[in-house]
Amino acid sequence: MRVRYFRPQDFEKVMEIESEAFEEHNPFIYMNFYEMNNEYFLVADYNGYVVGFVAGYQMSETEGRIFSLAVKQDYRGYGIGTRLLEAIMRVFRRKALRYANLEVRLSNVRAQSLYRKMDFIPCWIEHGYYSDGEDGIIMKKVLSPHIRTGVRRVLGKPAHQREWPALKIRNKI
């Protein structure tokens, strides 16, 4: 299984996965993502067959948003969602984004578990977030702490310098 960028010929498979995973279904959103945010639209390809996808975008100078993540039902539980999340986080880091956020249904305990495993923190609940009235949990993740911070002198006195590990940003997805 490999994660790669979405291509127009993947559209039908992505729509199958999306309609299987989500009650709210709007195929035009995904073509818009491809046209406007193609570098943030990735698919999981298993022997030429699309089995999952993640779509995101840059919402500010410092923050990326994961709009949608889904894995075909028969392929869940094999780490594909984790691989897709890792890949979109690498894309966000390459763009020098410091944070990622997403929302998840209050009832989707399995997805919440995945996000927590990937260090997303539940921040607040948006009541009635979804069109059916269900609440959504907004979750955030710090992507890149300060590479190096510290002040050598504060008010003429030596200050302790704290160093953060340098990030290793790969050029691959």
UniProtKB/TrEMBL annotation:
NCBIfam families: rimI. GO terms for molecular function: protein-N-terminal amino-acid acetyltransferase activity. The keyword Transferase applies. Keywords: Acyltransferase, Ribonucleoprotein, Ribosomal protein, Transferase. GO terms for cellular component: NatA complex; ribosome. The keyword Cell inner membrane does not apply. It comes from the Archaea. The lineage of its organism: Archaea, Methanobacteriati, Methanobacteriota, Stenosarchaea group, Methanomicrobia. It holds the Pfam family Acetyltransf_1. This is Ribosomal protein S18-alanine N-acetyltransferase. Residues 1-144 form the N-acetyltransferase domain.
